[in-house]
Every structure is written in C-alpha cells, then in structure tokens.
Design goal:
By secondary structure, the protein is α/β, with parallel strands linked by helices. The chain has 15 helices and 17 strands. Helix content is 35%, strand content 24%. The model has no long low-confidence stretch (mean pLDDT 94).
Length: 401
C-alpha cells in the first residue's frame, strides 16, 4: 500500500522542525520519504491513493508514558476527601479494593473504553502499570484485542514490605515472560532484597524496569526516616531502573543522580495536582539535563488526554515564572518517550519510521491561525481539532480523504 500525502504542513524529525509544505510518501506502514517543499514530478499510477493535505498539519502521534488504565472503573472515586495514601496506596488504598472487587468483564469494558478515548485523542502508544500479577497483564492484553493501539504492559507481583519467597520470585518471572517489563509501586513498599531481585528479573531478560519515586512529601519523608536517604538514592544503591515516575518532590541532588545515571523521568502533573502532592519541577529537570516524558496516570483521576497534560505544564510553568518552551513539551509527549522506553521507529516523523501521526486541522476554529504552531498545539489543540489519527500507515480514527 503506497499513499502520497501532498501539500501538508509537518513537524519533522527528532527536533520537530516546523515545515510549511511537504509531500509525504507512506509505504507499507512506514514513512518512505519526505519531500520538503513538495514536488509535481510524480507518476500517479504508482500510488494506491493521493490525499491533498492543504490546511492539515501532520505531527507524530502521542506516547502516553504512564497510565493505570484499569482504574477507569473507579473514575473520581478518590477525587475529594481522601488523602494521597487513602486514594492510591497499593496495600490499603481505595484503588486496590476497587480493582480486587470488580468483575473481570467490567474491568475489560472500561479498559477498552479508555483505550478508544486515547486513540481519539491522538495517542497510539501507551505504557501501562498493571496491577494484579500475571492475570492483570493478560486481562489488559485481552481487553485490547481488536483496538488499534500499541500497549507497553508493565506488570508486577503484589507482595509488599517483605523479602520475596522463591515461589513469589517465580511468580515475578512468570509475569516478566508475558509482560514488557516490571512497573513497581514506590520503593518504600519494597525491601532492599525484593527490589534487587525484581530489578534483576527484568534486566536479565532485557525488559523494562521502572517504579514510582518521590511522588509525595509523605513518601519522601518516610524514606529519609526509615532508610536515612531519599527514595532516589536508595533505589540507585540497589538497581538502575530505566525510568522513574513522578519525581514531584525530588531535590536537585536527586535529579542530578537520575541524569548522571541516564534514567528517564515520567511526569504526571495533573494527577499530582488532583492528589494534592505538588507540581513536578519540569523546568529544573530540563535545566539539569534530564530526559522527560509525560503520562496522564490513573484514569481514576484524569481523562487520558495528552493535550490537557501539555497545556497544564505550559501554563503552570509560566504562572510560576519558570516558562517551559512549548516545543520541549511536545518532545516530552513524543520523541523523549520513545527514547526512554526504547521504542523502535516511533516518536518522530522521518523516512524509515513507522507511519504513526496525528493530522491536525489548521483551520479549526480553536487554533486558526497558527502564528506559533508549537504554542497552538500545546495550549489550544484538542480532540476536536484532530482530523485523523494514523498508526502504521492506516487511518484508525477520523477521515482525511
């Protein structure tokens, strides 16, 4: 299948350079070539379809770098009146009770619904922290059958505050064989020995290993009190994860250790705000050279909408006189996430990359006219300004013909 997309505007390459006019050839699910400025020298008989994209902007599709998608069964159950730990603590939080007491078919229905919401919002890849052991990962993958979306499923075993027995470690090995990696709760919920063994199980198989860190001041203070060091320093004394999620209450010293060890950071600012635990200092993370991606986190707390997440980062940083460049925020939602999670051939648009893209209507009432395309996309674009979503060269939502 060969498609020619003519006269398109484009966010091109790893630096998301804005190109006013380009022709894009999509062949067998990949971006075959990008002709900047376009051309009239084509043999039309070569193409299965030719689409005039005048008035459309083609950008890389979003990678939602952190979700708990099954939580969509419990939307807003912890939105008011509950503390951070009462809401989402993996041992005694209301979230765990809901997940463990919900019928499987209901969980699957809401996972599927949230995945479709992500597609409509331009997300073609998401990274999910899935609870409930091997069964939870299998349920997640079964729920997504028939939906055009790419899921990186990170599982876990739910044994906390103890060293793991041989049987429990074998269970973790079963999880990692089926999942794409391990996504753990905060370090405070694991003994040193458990962290060491779980990291080894993932790393020895070349799979992802990540966990939450420094999400709340409570968790940060607990680590200092019990272990004498911050969560980050304790984690790095035991293992080297691929990424850490949140880092909302991390110090500059923590951030420097993360950067020096080549560990990615996934920020989830709207979820942090919903839980009242603070605002991640994205501006300082960038200043110190950290690689940052963006996640929408628990569907229980947030609609999985990367446009709203980007807008929140942009406006909060400006309100605090710490403005973050809109292009850098777009990179967090695309290029950086692919880098952190070792995702091959996605994250940006170039020849040889998978043809994953969002097609934006530049004349949509909310964003016309785009005097600054990066700011327009970050603070004005939304699901309603999406003309189509492409994955592996196929339009999976909308219509651009």
């Amino acid at each position: 299948m060969i498609t020619l997309l003519k006269n398109a505007s484009l966010l091109y390459g790893k630096d998301l350079d804005y190109i006013g006019s380009a022709d894009i050839i999509v062949r067998d699910g990949l971006f075959d070539s990008i002709i900047i400025g376009g051309s009239n020298d084509y043999d039309s008989s070569v193409f299965d379809s030719i689409v005039d994209c005048e008035g459309l902007l083609i950008m890389p599709s979003f990678i939602n770098a952190h979700t708990h998608i099954a939580d969509s069964i419990a939307k807003d159950i912890a939105s008011e009146g509950l503390s951070f730990n009462e809401s989402i603590h993996p041992v005694f939080g209301v979230k765990r009770r809901v997940l463990n007491n919900t019928r499987e078919e209901h969980l699957m229905h809401f996972i599927k619904a949230s995945a479709l919401t992500m597609v409509k919002n331009g997300i073609t890849t998401f990274i999910d922290f899935r609870e409930q052991g091997l069964h939870g990962v299998r349920l997640l993958k079964a729920s997504l059958n028939g939906i055009s979306i790419r899921c990186i499923a990170l599982g876990r075993v739910e044994y906390y505050n103890k060293d793991l027995s041989d049987e429990e470690l074998r269970e973790a090995e079963d999880v990692i064989e089926y999942a794409d990696g391990l996504g753990l709760s905060g370090a405070n919920e694991y003994s040193d020995d458990a962290l060491k063994h779980l990291a080894y199980i993932a790393k020895a198989r070349g799979k992802l290993f990540g966990l939450h860190a420094c999400e709340s001041q409570e968790s940060y203070s607990y680590s200092l009190s019990k272990y004498g060091v911050s969560e980050v320093k304790r984690i790095l004394s035991i293992a080297r994860p691929d990424f850490l999620v949140h880092m909302t209450n991390a110090t500059d010293d923590d951030l420097m250790h993360v950067k020096e060890n080549g560990i990615g950071i996934v920020v989830c600012p709207r979820a942090n705000a919903s839980l009242g635990v603070g605002i991640p200092r994205v501006w300082d993370m960038l200043r110190l050279g950290c690689t940052i991606a963006i996640g929408t986190d628990n569907v229980m707390l947030n609609k999985p909408d990367m446009f709203r997440e980007m807008e929140y980062i942009w406006k909060v940083s400006r309100a605090l006189k710490q403005g973050v460049n809109a292009k850098d925020i777009l990179k967090m939602a695309t290029v950086n996430a692919a880098m952190i999670f070792r995702l091959s051939k996605i994250g940006y648009i170039d020849a040889g990359m998978r043809a994953d893209a969002i097609i934006i209507d530049k004349y949509h009432v909310d964003i016309a006219y785009m005097h600054n395309p990066y700011v327009a996309l970050v603070q004005r674009a939304s699901e309603s300004s999406i003309k189509g979503v492409m994955m592996d060269g196929n339009i999976i939502y909308g219509n651009i013909g």
